[in-house]
Design a protein that fits this description.
The chain has 518 residues and is mostly helical. It contains 21 helices and no strands.
Length: 518
């Protein structure tokens, strides 16, 4: 756990950099594991059989999110605030109070789910459905120690948990596909991997609090937590509607072609995993944002501005680039049976950009307990999503669902950022995103031109991706996207980079932001 602010020995930059490294590792581990497993499952199982499995998986994920009742977010908010102000005993009390509540809720929901499985689900889908429902318990409980580690501004333990989980799941999927265990083996592997992740994340938290005096959560803090959790629950419901693939329900109801559900699900999953890459920096900053609310609010506003700029620098070229290579990517990775998913992936990737840059604004509003605004405008965005689903899905299937979800995301992101800019002293240098957009446009032209060349899809990917990356870096230097302040932060970050690649990282910084640049 971090030291109280009066004796803290690491600067914010060092803390953020350390969290960025570990969160980046967690994202890479999860991204690689997800891509390996989803691609293998999609190609072997096929879009028709996979449709019902994805529906059950989505229902368990939604149940897990709703059943959390905002408790993980409450844990993050109040542990971050109390650790930031040096009140470690209160942080410990919050952790164990929420851990008990989360465990009870998870057990109850899992029991209800098992009853539903054996009374509603068809017999041929019952076994793997039961395993998916059982995985609710470790998945939900693991949210609490995960948020505790993040609130402590130390994500190393979460990386270990993610690594253990992904290794187990990849092995389980491989064995299931090779030995013919099918969806039952895959679901069993998911249950085992989530259980292992829970153990890996919760043990370090127990150890860190072993010498901290026990304290009950005071009644006034319980009231604050209850109010915050209640509002968070409403926000989670709206996020599920706007951000969380609720369009799957409408695809099932309004589209007779079950493949459309699969097309939307895999494209949303790819984009969602890619969005986590630029969001890594925002997530690394989020713990510091929460802590700064208890230390220095002025610094909180400054950090929010910096975080949004860096997230956009990662999200814009990445997601635009994915949209440009969508056609060869789907052909090479998923095969000819998934060709209808190409336009879906293009729409989902481009309209995920607003979602990617939303985290810093949301964290600021969470830290300030200003959730009422998000709740009201999130509800409006949810209505927009539902109306567009009803209008577009019957005729356009998964592509219509992608447009509906993306437009609703954009609406919500604009509303939330407007609130932050108007109500709080968060200021931006508009010239930076303009220069970034120019660099991204040049990259997109080069990548699209490469994809248009009449060569094989695999060769298009092999050429377009590195060409796009090189052009983008050259344009970032030419348009002076990064400034000298950014250079100093990156050089501080270089001390945390593993030694074998540190010199390469420093060379990259020197290229992007020369020391003589004005």
């Amino acid at each position: 756990m971090p030291l109280p602010p009066t004796v803290r020995t690491r600067s914010n930059t060092e803390v953020i950099g350390r969290n960025f490294i570990f969160m980046g590792l967690e994202v890479v581990i999860t991204l690689v594991g997800t891509m390996l497993t989803t691609v293998a499952i999609a190609r072997v199982i096929g879009p028709t059989r996979l449709g019902y499995y994805n529906l059950i998986m989505w229902l368990t994920m939604i149940t897990s999110s709703v059943g959390s009742l905002g408790i993980p977010l409450t844990t993050f908010k109040y542990m971050g605030e109390f650790l930031g102000s040096g009140r470690t005993e209160l942080a410990r009390a919050v952790f164990f109070y929420n851990l008990r509540a989360q465990t009870v809720i998870a057990s109850i929901l899992s029991a209800i789910g098992m009853i539903a499985v054996f009374t509603i689900v068809h017999s041929e889908n019952r076994v793997y459905s039961a395993l998916l429902v059982l995985s609710l318990v470790p998945n939900m409980v693991a949210f609490i120690p995960s948020q505790a580690n993040t609130a402590a501004e130390n994500s190393a333990f979460n990386v270990r948990g993610a690594f253990v989980s992904e290794v187990i799941y990849v092995i389980a999927v491989a064995l299931s596909l090779l030995l013919g265990w099918g969806l039952v083996g895959i679901a069993g592997g998911l249950l085992l991997s989530r259980s292992a992740e829970l153990v890996a994340k919760i043990v370090p938290v127990f150890r860190s609090f072993a010498t901290v005096p026990r304290l009950s959560v005071p009644i006034e803090i319980r009231k604050r937590m209850f109010t915050f959790s209640g509002l968070s629950t409403g926000l989670l419901l709206l996020q599920i509607l706007v951000w969380g693939r609720s369009d799957i329900v409408f695809l099932k109801l309004l589209q007779p072609d079950i493949r459309q559900l699969t097309f939307f699900s895999i494209c949303f999953s790819v984009a969602d995993q890619l969005v986590r890459v630029p969001q890594t920096f925002a997530n690394a900053l989020s713990a510091t944002q929460m802590a700064e609310y208890g230390r220095d609010k002025n610094n909180l506003f400054k950090i929010t501005s910096q975080a949004s700029t860096y997230v956009l620098m990662g999200a814009l070229p990445l997601l635009v680039g994915v949209a440009c290579v969508a056609s060869p990517f789907v052909r090479v990775v998923y095969g000819s049976q998934y060709l209808p998913a190409i336009p879906v992936l293009i729409v989902v990737a481009l309209l995920s950009i607003p979602k990617a840059v939303l985290t810093p604004a949301q964290t600021l509003l969470y830290s300030a307990e200003d959730l009422g605004f998000i709740l009201r405008w999130g509800f409006v965005a949810g209505l927009v999503d539902v109306l567009l689903d009803v209008m577009l899905i019957p005729s356009y299937g998964a592509t219509g669902a992608a447009w509906a979800n993306g437009i609703a995301q954009t609406f919500a992101a604009v509303a939330i950022w407007s609130r932050v800019i108007i109500r709080y002293p968060v200021r931006f240098d508009i010239s930076v995103p303009m220069r970034l957009a120019a660099a991204t446009l040049v990259m997109a032209i080069v990548v699209s031109g490469t994809v248009a060349i009449p060569i094989s899809a695999a060769l298009k990917l092999a050429v377009a991706i590195p060409a796009g990356a090189i052009v983008f870096m050259i344009m970032c230097r030419a348009f002076v996207v990064l400034q000298q302040d950014d250079r100093q932060r990156l050089l501080v970050l270089s001390t945390l980079v593993p030694t074998p690649v540190r010199s390469w990282f420093t060379l990259l910084v020197d290229f992007l932001v020369p020391c003589h640049q004005l």
